[in-house]
Write a structure and sequence with these properties.
It is built from 14 helices and 18 strands. Strands 6, 7, 8, 9, 10 and 11 form a 6-stranded antiparallel β-sheet that branches. The longest helix has about 45 residues. It binds adenosine-5'-diphosphate.
Length: about 475
């Protein structure tokens, strides 16, 4: 009775086992010591594409691509030694010859004496998992931001392709490395604190809000970045995904906007002063003429009209200069660089200056042969006439103005010397700055807007030259600029 009950029990268990094997989604197969299959369930038929009939008695090698044979032999050896091997991943062949990823758990089958007489294998097709993983990787790779998975030890466990682009390291150079690899040294102490705090209360958050963060590329260059951290709870503890957005362009834009804003404020301040005073005088004298036309002498009328004309010219000049400054600062200034003869340009400028300032002596010397230069002749004309006009403005009419040309191997040097009021040493530095009018000239009678030298400096430097001033107060000034020689 007891025995038949036992028999009944074991039969029931066998039936249960058989139905589990039949209905399993995993392939379940058994094999003998030679690796020939002794059983093959429906899932195995599904996965491999071979029917039980086709496979029973066939050798396992039929399913193993050549590159995995060695692995198979190692596994079989371990099984025969009585071990069980769980969830190792490999590649197998389907009936149509295609390869697919698989996870295998292999155990020894023993007889009643405990001797290993065969193997049983449970196999799971990993194609879908790998596809899902690939999809996940594709999603990561399509992100415009660098994404880095940092494990609980602070090492880089996964990166997307944008990380390679932004930081210049290859994937292999980053994987397994401490995340500090990508952080400038000076931020590293903060990083440890930050990580501890973050792990203490992990939640999605921007890193270092309000701070300017930087990443370090493999060439040592620092790039401005914004970082968002998201914790992911895994079986191995909390890991962190850092999403890193390269904000180089954004920060440049912000800086540019700040500069433009500053420029605008400056402009408004100067406009208020420099435009308002000539306009006040224009409208003042115009109204005077309208109101008192009949009672004003012809001489006075001429004088008032001259004042109006002069102020109008200043206004026009200022608008012209301000527009040129704006174009230079927006980087929109186009130069037409050609070879030209600076000697004849200087002579023309001097002829013009003599025509306007008939009582003034203008002298010209050229030290040696002056070669052709390379630049935009119109822009050099502008520099030259501006420096000559300053020399005239800031020196007495009876003192001569001298232009001298000289050259070295690379540059022609143009010097304009006056014997005027000169410039104090302290003022030399701000001379070439925007609106840089210096103390001696703030006299309202000397017209000017302080933009001329700033424009000259920008024009000269943009064409590969330099400009500077040597001066002693009370004795005069020499302004010098250089132009590259044409080769
Ligand atoms: P502006 O002449 O319109 O004021 P500039 O930029 O040409 O503007 O010159 C800036 C300032 O530099 C002048 O206001 C003046 O103070 C000083 N400066 C320029 N050239 C000379 C010079 N030859 N001698 C003395 N001071 C000069």
């Amino acid at each position: 009775m007891g025995k038949s009950l036992q028999n009944g029990e074991s039969e029931a268990r066998r039936a249960l086992l058989a139905s589990i094997i039949e209905s399993s989604h995993d392939a379940i197969m058994s094999g003998d010591l030679n690796g020939n299959f002794t059983s093959w369930n429906p899932a195995a038929e599904q996965i491999y594409g071979f029917s039980a009939q086709e496979m029973i008695g066939q050798n396992v090698l039929r399913l193993v691509p050549p590159e995995k044979e060695q692995q198979l032999n190692e596994v079989r050896k371990k099984i025969f030694d009585g071990n069980r091997i769980e969830h190792f991943e490999s590649i197998r062949l389907r009936k149509d010859g295609s390869k697919f990823p698989i996870s295998l758990t292999v155990s020894p089958i023993r007889d009643s004496n405990g001797t290993v007489i065969g193997t049983s294998t449970i196999a799971r097709d990993l194609t879908d998992r790998d596809k899902a993983e690939q999809k996940f990787r594709d999603i990561l790779d399509s992100s415009p931001d660098a994404m880095i998975l940092v494990d609980k030890d602070g090492n880089i466990a996964l990166v997307n392709s944008q990380t390679e682009k932004i930081f210049g390291y290859s994937r292999d150079e980053m994987l397994g490395q401490p995340v500090e690899l990508l952080v400038p040294k000076r931020f590293q102490p903060n990083l440890y604190d930050y990580r501890d705090n973050f792990l203490a209360s992990p939640q999605v958050q921007p890193m270092g809000e309000g701070l300017e963060l930087f990443g370090r590329r493999n060439d040592g260059l620092e790039i401005p970045v914004e970082v968002r951290l998201s914790p992911i709870d895994t079986a191995d503890g909390v890991v962190v995904v850092a999403t890193i957005h390269d904000v180089t362009e954004h920060r440049q834009l912000v800086r540019r906007l700040e500069e433009l804003n500053e420029l605008r404020n400056e402009f408004v301040a100067v406009v208020t002063h420099d435009l308002r005073s000539p306009m006040t005088s224009i409208s003042g004298y115009a109204n005077l003429l309208i109101d008192a036309w009949d009672t004003t002498s012809d001489d006075k009328k001429i004088e008032y009209l001259q004042i109006i004309a002069r102020n109008t010219e200043h206004l026009a000049q200022f608008v012209e200069d301000a527009l040129q400054v704006a174009r230079i600062e927006m980087g929109e200034y186009a130069f037409e660089i050609v070879e030209f003869d600076i000697r004849s340009l200087v002579q023309r400028a001097l002829d013009e200056a003599r025509g306007v300032n008939v009582n003034r002596r203008f002298e010209f010397t050229a030290l040696g042969d002056i070669p052709l230069v390379l630049g935009d002749a119109d822009r050099h004309w502008q520099v030259l006439t501006n420096l000559l006009a300053n020399a005239v403005k800031f020196s007495p009419a009876n003192e001569p103005i001298t232009v001298e040309l000289s050259c070295d191997d690379e540059f022609v040097q143009v010097s304009i010397t006056d014997q005027g009021i000169g410039i104090a040493n302290d003022d030399l530095a701000k001379l070439f700055q925007k609106f840089g009018r210096v103390s001696q000239s703030t006299d309202e009678k000397v017209p000017g807007n302080g933009l001329g030298l700033y424009i000259c400096k920008n024009l000269v430097e943009a064409q590969g030259g330099r400009i500077w001033c040597e001066s002693s107060p009370g004795r005069g000034s020499t302004f010098v600029f250089t132009i590259p020689i044409a080769r």
